[in-house]
Design the sequence.
């Protein structure tokens, strides 16, 4: 293969790297550099002709030397490995060597690791004018002593001062030092001030963490699921000096910059024709509660355009409901959940006044269409199928029940639900508009759903009657010997798992059937549940968030990460841009300084936030 064909192949590989958004920009740059080094090496090898005879002689000499070394019984294989990989004999084996002085005392074991040297590949000075625009040093020198105006107030540019130092990860470390102009009012009595905004250096002020580098940290944390202590060690190996605590603090103190984006994203999601809502648990160490890990939750709300997560210390359904109300959810929006969200969850009681008897006059308002996930219903019957063990026999806990009957019914219901899914998918494929969706569902899907409920209505009624009888009997036998006898009796007409499955199916009948009358209705909530898979990995890679504020910051970035993932956008490239853009508008964000810059509200225009939506960064 000649040089031109090698160069062509490497060029194609570089194009593939550029087209893959899942690859980190730093990793992409490193791989492309390696490809160019390979090309250079190949070219040099073509230009240099090595004598074959000399090469053979060198190999013979090397083999002879290796044979002599292997014959030396005083050199162990372990010592050879130590010599090859460490470059010197390890201290552990040094005293076992025949060359070591047995009277020489052993060196004390080092208790502190040497700090890795910082590798600075370059240092750059960036000068900015009074409008925050990047200029050359020559232009900066020319501006000294010049008069500039702001709101009819004159200022003199006295010089330039160092506004900060930022580090970026290249091959090594590039340190960029920013220089802002010093502006002095011409009128000594003027109270007008001029704060020059330079997003690159106003991001995480007084720290060397740049927006690009922190975007890379976010990529490692969410895409690679690396805990902060491992990220800190990784950066340390590159020559940076950021502790786990400082990285955690940076996520909290930059949270307010991303909150306006998440606020607007929430508004866009709630305006979608359908929404999925679910929650999963997380953990948090309360500040001051030593060693205590509390169970907290992430509430997820998704649609076809994105997903948002909210961190809360309660699993109650009010958090998601209030978010939907605050963002003016439409009456026709279809919201799908699991059974935790009860049948009246989509209703709101509004007090209209007081009647003549002093009683409140209430009106029940339906906020949105509420549907339940059929996958959850099917899952209950899958649990019944798990009655059989490895030997195709019932487990010990179910042997006293009519498990053969329950198993047969459970499999039948699973197959029926699968048919409902298949039929509805076919309907959505062939329907051309919303009216046709409703029409096809009425003629093809509804009969399947109705037959399922009709065929098992007697079973549910029988279960209900047995439950009432057992309750009355338990009450009558309370305090007698029969009460103790009943506690030891586990036999019954139906197994407990089968009773739970059928009860779930019938108690939620109204919400499970609601998709039939709404063209936006869907049968499952798999999308949001799939996004919780990454949360499960994060739970294992980090014990917990240290504080509730840390959990809130995690939810903010995770919302944008999952939305970027949905639109095939690289989270590192996205955050590197939006952090700087939001710094430009930081004056319009209201925060609580005393509470780690906690976000309160913002006045950033919707058109600016629309530009920051992840789908606008997708490559065509």
Sequence:
């Amino acid at each position: 293969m000649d040089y031109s064909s090698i160069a062509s192949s490497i060029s194609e590989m570089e194009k593939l790297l550029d087209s893959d958004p899942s690859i980190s920009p730093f990793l992409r740059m490193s791989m492309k550099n390696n490809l160019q080094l390979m090309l250079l090496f190949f070219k040099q090898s073509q230009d240099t002709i090595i004598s074959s005879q000399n090469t053979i002689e060198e190999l013979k000499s090397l083999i002879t030397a290796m044979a002599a070394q292997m014959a030396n019984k005083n050199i162990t294989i372990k010592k050879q490995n130590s010599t090859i990989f460490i470059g010197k004999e390890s201290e552990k084996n040094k005293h076992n060597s025949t060359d070591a002085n047995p009277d020489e005392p052993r060196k004390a074991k080092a208790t502190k690791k040497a700090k890795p040297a910082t590798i600075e590949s370059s240092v750059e000075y960036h000068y900015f004018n009074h409008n925050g625009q990047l200029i050359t040093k020559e232009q900066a020198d020319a501006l000294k002593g010049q008069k500039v105006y702001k709101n009819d107030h004159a200022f003199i540019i006295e010089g330039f001062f160092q506004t900060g130092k930022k580090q970026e990860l290249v091959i090594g470390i590039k340190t960029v030092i920013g220089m802002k102009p010093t502006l002095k009012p011409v009128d000594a009595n003027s109270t007008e001030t001029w704060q020059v905004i330079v997003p690159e250096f106003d991001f995480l002020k007084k720290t060397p963490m740049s927006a690009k580098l922190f975007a890379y940290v976010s990529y490692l944390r969410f895409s690679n699921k690396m805990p902060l202590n491992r990220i800190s060690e990784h950066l340390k190996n590159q020559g940076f000096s950021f502790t786990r605590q400082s990285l955690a603090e940076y996520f909290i103190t930059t949270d307010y910059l991303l909150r306006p984006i998440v606020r607007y994203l929430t508004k866009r999601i709630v305006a979608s024709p359908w929404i999925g809502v679910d929650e999963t648990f997380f953990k948090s160490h309360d500040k001051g509660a030593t060693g205590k890990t509390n169970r907290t939750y992430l509430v997820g709300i998704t649609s076809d355009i994105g997903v948002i997560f909210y961190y809360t210390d309660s699993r109650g359904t009010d958090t998601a409901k209030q978010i939907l109300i605050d963002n003016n959810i439409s009456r026709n929006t279809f919201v799908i959940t699991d059974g935790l969200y009860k049948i009246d969850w989509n209703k709101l009681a509004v007090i209209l006044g007081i009647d003549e008897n002093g009683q409140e006059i209430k009106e029940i308002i339906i906020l949105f269409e509420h549907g339940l996930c059929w996958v959850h219903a099917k899952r209950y019957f899958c649990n019944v199928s798990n009655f059989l063990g490895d030997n195709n026999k019932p487990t010990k806990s179910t042997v006293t029940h009519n498990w053969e009957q329950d198993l047969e019914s459970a499999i039948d219901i699973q197959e029926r639900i699968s048919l409902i899914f298949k039929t509805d998918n076919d309907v959505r494929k062939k329907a051309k508009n919303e009216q046709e969706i409703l029409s096809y569902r009425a003629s093809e899907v509804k009969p399947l759903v109705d037959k399922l409920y009709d065929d098992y209505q007697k079973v549910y009624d029988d279960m209900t009657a047995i439950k009432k009888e057992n309750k009355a009997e338990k009450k009558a036998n309370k305090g007698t010997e029969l009460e103790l006898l009943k506690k030891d009796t586990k036999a019954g007409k139906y197994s407990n798992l089968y009773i739970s499955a059928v009860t779930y199916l019938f108690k939620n009948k109204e919400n499970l059937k609601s998709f039939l009358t709404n063209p936006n209705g869907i049968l499952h909530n798999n999308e949001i549940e799939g996004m919780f898979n990454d949360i499960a990995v994060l739970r294992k890679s980090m014990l917990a968030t240290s504080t509730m504020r840390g959990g809130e910051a995690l939810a903010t970035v995770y919302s944008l990460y999952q939305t970027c993932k949905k639109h095939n956008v690289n989270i590192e490239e996205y955050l590197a841009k939006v952090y700087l853009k939001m710094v430009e508008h930081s004056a319009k964000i209201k925060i609580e300084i005393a509470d780690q810059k906690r976000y309160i509200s913002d006045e950033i225009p919707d058109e600016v936030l629309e530009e920051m939506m992840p789908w606008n960064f997708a490559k065509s």
Q: What stands out?
A: The mean pLDDT is 79.
